[in-house]
Amino acid sequence: AKWRAAVLAGMLCVDVFAMFVTPQLSAPQGGTLDTAAVSFLRSHLGDYRFYTLGPIQPNYGSYFQLSELDVNDLPVPKPFASYVTSKLDQTGNPLIFAGNPGQPAGPTAAQEFAKNFASFEAAGVKYLLVPGGTVLPPLPASQRLKLVYGDPVVQIYRLPQPAPLFSSPTAGCRVVSYSLSSAKVSCSTAGVVVYRELSMPGWTATVSGRGARDTTVSKVFQSVPVPAGTSTVEFTFAPPHTDPALAAFLLGAAALVGTLWKRKRRPAEARPDGSPHGRHFRRAA
For residues 212 and 232, what is the distance between their CA atoms, to the nearest angstrom? Predict the structure, then answer.
């Protein structure tokens, strides 16, 4: 029985390995990764976003460390899902918001983009990516796209007036972003700074190191009040209930270690025959 179990286990390992390796024999043995479009975006995107109708599918924006508006994820926050269907693509699927038509007989994603052009700019979209050779719907002269990159695989168009990640609707305020989460603000009077990042539980904001009240604007973005003068605005995110979860983890780990330590130090039970383990039964003579 011992050897049968070993042989069966070995056969199972060989079978799993063969079933995994055999399909890989038909995979390409080599190739060159085309990252020219990615390199262009890394050099020109800054703290804006891009929207794709095909190339660089989600969530490769995160893989390449590029801000992408498209998502293919679960769960999707309800405010973002509502924003997609009300402002960006009325027929699209917010769970797979990847430039694909949500209804076979409905308008295409390119037509929805043309229809909601201003909303895409308001979301901080600077570049539109489409497959090579794609013909886009006509746009008004004020919304004319400029082709800034093209190859047989992807074409990149620049939107004329994308909204920056940090901005202020207050007259007399100047905002300069330092990173994707902080900016320097100079205001002649007290004002407001808008941060075009999804408003959801877990975000905290500080103004010159002091906590600030973070409110939701446009049902999806964030804003904080700033005083007159020069301030540094910074946003940070941590999943809600992180501290209680960490405390529970440490408590459980401590309990586990304590249990193991207690069992290790427990003395062996005394036996009638002096043996340290189990009862010793003598066969009757």
Answer: 11
- pLDDT for 140-156, tens place per residue? 888 889 999 999 999 99
d(CA 191, CA 193): 7
State the number of CA atoms in the 13 A half-sphere of 111 facing the CB.
Answer: 10
DSSP β-ladder status, 182-187 and 229-237: antiparallel
The dihedrals phi and psi of 17, each to the nearest 5 degrees, come to -65, -45
Main-chain phi, psi angles of 237, to 5 degrees: -130, 135
| Residues 240, 209 contacting (CB under 8 angstroms) | no
List phi, psi (to 5°) of 35: -120, 25
Separation between Cα atoms, residue 115 and residue 125, nearest integer Å: 15
The pLDDT value given to residue 138: 87
The whole model's pTM is what? 0.79
Looking at per-residue pLDDT, the higher value among 186 and 28 belongs to: 186
Residue 181 burial (CB count, 10 A): 18
Question: How far, CA to CA in Å, does 252 sit from each of 152, 216, 247, 256?
Answer: 56, 37, 9, 6
Alpha-carbon distance values, 235 to 23, 42, 69, 78, 179 (Å): 47, 23, 19, 21, 10
Q: How far apart are CA 252 and CA 105, in angstroms?
A: 54
